[in-house]
Amino acid sequence: QQQVKQSPQSLIVQKGGISIINCAYENTAFDYFPWYQQFPGKGPALLIAIRPDVSEKKEGRFTISFNKSAKQFSLHIMDSQPGDSATYFCAASLINSGYALNFGKGTSLLVTP
Amino acid sequence: NAGVTQTPKFRILKIGQSMTLQCTQDMNHNYMYWYRQDPGMGLKLIYYSVGAGITDKGEVPNGYNVSRSTTEDFPLRLELAAPSQTSVYFCASSFDRGVSGYGYTFGSGTRLTVV
Lengths: 113, 115
What we know:
The complex is a heterodimer. Chain A has strands at residues 4-7, 10-14, 19-25, 33-38, 45-50, 56-59, 62-67, 72-77, 86-93, 101-103, 107-112.
């Protein structure tokens, strides 16, 4: 059972455009929602994260929007660059699982020049 | 500071063979995890540990075993390898639940093929 559902599976955006990746979750016990970025041949790395008491968090060109009532959160990449081409994973933490992250299936982003 | 080190980087196993994937971290993190990554399927938790001597099953533990005798090491054992275990395996560690802003530190992965 997929705890966190992520869409789209792949995304192509022109340089300078906005990339948007969406995630939805079912378990209201989740209390931490990070996004990870993975380049080919590397392990994922934390990009940005949000807690449910905040509706938006921005770090540079990356913004998380969080809608607690809809149980949805999204990643916006403004002014997308070719260097942003990577796989992005949303995740959520479940309190009674020993703090392990539940990951979405990932979105492969390609930013074209 | 090496972070999380996984060995080997690549391995081909025959069906029925066994092997141990090594993972060590030098950040004194209490929490360690093993995930497998299959194309289009995201990262699935195999086992995790909240400290030396304590381990617990994740979402897909069948066919695997772990041990945590020290804070630094968290090896993953595959017994009787099957083609379904062909995957990329990632070890990760975290200072706390990964919610302090530091997140998880992942290793660079082990690509395993079972033939």
